Hints:
It contains 16 helices and 27 strands. By secondary structure, the chain is an alpha/beta fold.
Amino acid sequence: MPITDLLERNSKLYGEEVALVEINPEVTEVPQVTWKEYELIQPTASAPYRRQITWSVFDEKANRVANLLMQRGIRKGQKVAILLMNCLDWLPIYFGVLKTGAVAVPLNFRYTAKEIEYCVNLADADVLFFGPEFIGRVEDIAQDIGKDRILFFVGSNPPSFAESYSDAAANCSSTAPKVLIEDKDDAAIYYSSGTTGFPKAILLDHTALMQSARMEAIHHETTHDDVFLCIPPLYHTGAKMHWFGSLYTGSRAVILKGNTPKAILDAVSWEKCTIVWLLVPWCQDILAAIERGDIRLEDYQLSQWRLMHIGAQPVPPSLIRHWLQYFPHHKYDTNYGLSESTGPGCVHLGMENVHKVGAIGVPGYGWRCKIVDEKDREVQQGDVGELCVKGPGVMKCYYHDEKATNEVLKDGWLHTGDMAKQDEDGFIFLVDRKKDVIISGGENLYPVQIESFLSSCPKVHDVAVIGLPDPRLGEIAAAIIQVKEGMTCTEEEINHFCLDLPRYKRPRKIIFADVPRNPTGKIEKPKLRQIYCGVRLVEAQNRG
């Protein structure tokens, strides 16, 4: 069953129910009110800060997109790129592309003009939808990418080098096109994070997307009555595939254009959200705001919020223990995955396993896992090796890159590049990225373990550990520490805190600075290496 069938089913079963709400706290007209006052306002779909569409309108918009593309000659298997910030148009355009049998190609909103050009060319995209935030970048490359492509502008006042999407789609039929789509048909190309150069194009089929939708609903016991708060960017498999749980159950979702603690808690209160997927930095910000007194939980309606889950990066156990002190009624889940495995969930903790916080969990619904050494032999339980996963969500290939595909896909097993180990109960613990392991004086240091330890320091807001070159040891561990707002911290304090670490694991250099993270919450370690690997290092004093 292709993923588009779910949208058509929801339109028939729940046509007049709200499917998507968009809240934009950056709009000046957003009300500065309590949740009780907000209920009295009874906001409408036309409020500047709040828009909504029903399932039937969602489906009709997707059909108009599909018929527009087909009028312009787009056929099954062709590629259509999408470069938009989160908005109400995002998902209807995505599903409109899929309804033609074409392949949707979401693009990272942080891409430079050259990266946009590279990704559009690599995917063989024939169409590009883009929003007002990207006019300058697209204009820089319009003469090159616009020669053989259609450029649709999503917004008012289109630039001269693009067509207005809304004008072009207005007169198109709202009836679904008659296109046979099968489970194994190509559905989407998602791009890797590109941490080792330009990103790779990850090709997924409809089976993979449906697996993700079904799995999300099962893992989080999503029902038709749930309300999902979606904050991360929809171009990424994380946000998209978590929202697929709402698609699978026909339940409402709220797209929030903002991630401040107040914006998040306002949205949860106003829209009665029950499931919220957060990234580590946002959890840290909420907890910090509570402790500073900037946020008073009693000012919000949060009793219906039943599940907070996290993915996209390693989660310090201390963070979740801290979270549950303020939100003791919350169920919690950690979701592990890659775009190559159709996003989150190939491994997950499970809401019933909060006692195992620190683990990424057990194989997800429909998935198998193993941990192997460098010769692809399964390691003994408790030993560190590379995590491999196998299931219906594994990518078909890296598009136009057979060599890279063969390096990570072996007999249906996806080699994740993540180092992991398994405990006696079968729970998998992420140790680190294979390429991030620091070899210092012949010892393997795993930054995630050191980061997890330092995250429990009361003065540490965020931390990243990287390897820096050292003439004697080869590499040393350096900790980049972002101190909590309003606090001061010294190198001596951190060194004293680290006395509880084995001596060889203690960072030998402490750097106080902001920790950069990408839109999906991952620490941007290549950026940190670029900044700090070139500086002259003075070996820290013996920590013993």
